[in-house]
Specification:
By secondary structure, the chain is mainly alpha-helical. The protein folds into two domains: about 5-100, DNA polymerase, domain 1; about 130-310, hpI Integrase, Chain A, CATH 1.10.443. About 50% of the residues lie in helices and about 5% in strands. It has helices at about 20-30, 35-55, 65-80, 85-100, 130-135, 145-160, 165, 195-205, 240-255, 260-275, 280-285, 290-295, 295-315, and strands spanning about 5, 15, 175, 180-185, 190-195. Helix 2 crosses helix 4, helix 3 packs antiparallel against helix 4 (about 85-100) and helix 6 (about 145-160) crosses helix 10. It starts with a strand and ends in a 7-residue tail after the last helix.
Length: about 325
């Protein structure tokens, strides 16, 4: 049975307690599938919205039909949600019902034949190479935080890491002599990523006593902070939000504003590699994409840029 609405602590928003079957599903995702805390939090939000809709319609989770799920998708669209958001919320719902069916908690899977909304495939919008250089040059000085920030920007652009992967790097993951770093991506999947000379040089300078050593506290507040490569000003492991703010700070400094985010640096790394002839399979391995189709977006970006440059520069590009 769906539990009653309870007052949420965050932002004054009402949340809904999930039924035990849904909690078991989220536990299974965490333990058996290795989903990250951020992924679990997103699934929990999507399932809470679904449970609230079921409650308002007086529909029990065990009694859901295919028609109910189709009506829920229509409800999401009617709220004006973007196709990608509707598709993401449907993924959580479909996986929940599949789990219940496979575990024998439901007689059938009512979501099995519900089609996912079609999501328009947008192209990444990378920075130009000279814009990246301006961003990297924006970090001036050799104080501890400057060394840290330079290393963060160099590694994000140089490796194409996700921001969560970057802040999760510990000393045991680094091999600076070999120019390699071990990265744990989505689903705790491990991959080895090469470090270019600028990234290695920036990391070397940051890891000196006059760099990271200046931020080391007298006593570590949390277990694992001592092994963190990137520290905040209090001497704890740098968070995703903290690293995001650092990237945005330097983006604002060079006039990139809302165009810049850690993910844009990841897009830029991949796009520039393809521009310079990198094999798409190598880029896939570098970024940790599960599917080559995701990486192939960057070949489309390069084609579009090639066309734009041609039409702007070739004297006969606009002649019939």
């Amino acid at each position: 049975m769906v539990r009653p609405v309870v007052a949420g602590a965050e932002h004054g928003v009402s949340t809904i307690a999930l039924p035990m079957m849904a909690e078991e599903y989220l536990t299974w995702l965490t333990v058996e599938r290795g989903r990250s805390a951020n992924t679990i939090a997103a699934y929990r939000r999507d399932l809470a919205a679904y449970m609230r809709w079921l409650r308002d319609g007086a529909v029990e989770l065990a009694d859901v039909t295919e028609s109910d799920i189709e009506r829920y998708v229509a409800h999401q669209r009617a709220l004006g949600r973007a196709p990608a958001s509707v598709a993401r919320s449907l993924v959580a719902v479909r996986m929940l019902h599949r789990f219940l069916a496979e575990e024998g908690r439901a007689g059938s899977d009512p979501a099995a034949d519900v089609a996912a909304p079609r999501v328009p495939q947008g192209l990444p919008r990378p920075l130009a190479e000279d814009e990246v250089l301006s961003l990297l040059d924006a970090v001036v000085g050799h104080e501890a935080t400057g060394r840290r920030d330079r290393a963060i920007l160099e590694v994000l652009y140089g490796t194409g890491m996700r921001i969560g992967e970057l802040v999760g790097v510990s000393f045991g993951d680094l091999d600076l002599d070999g120019g390699l770093v071990r990265v744990f991506g989505k689903g705790a999947k491990e991959r080895i990523v090469p470090l270019g000379r600028p990234s290695r040089r920036a990391l070397d300078e940051w890891l000196e006593p006059s760099g990271r050593g200046c931020l080391v506290p007298d006593r570590w507040a949390r277990r694992g902070d001592a092994e963190a490569v990137f520290l905040n000003h209090r001497g704890g492991r740098l968070s995703r939000q903290g690293a995001w703010a650092i990237v945005r700070h330097y983006g604002d400094r060079v006039g990139l504003g809302d165009r810049l985010s850690p993910h844009v640096l990841r897009h830029s790394c991949a796009t520039h590699m393809v521009d310079h002839g990198a094999d798409i399979r190598v880029v896939q391995e570098l970024l940790g994409h599960a599917s080559i189709s995701t990486t192939q977006l960057y070949t489309k970006v390069s084609t579009e840029r090639l066309r734009a440059v041609f039409e702007a520069a070739h004297p006969r590009a606009h002649r019939r």
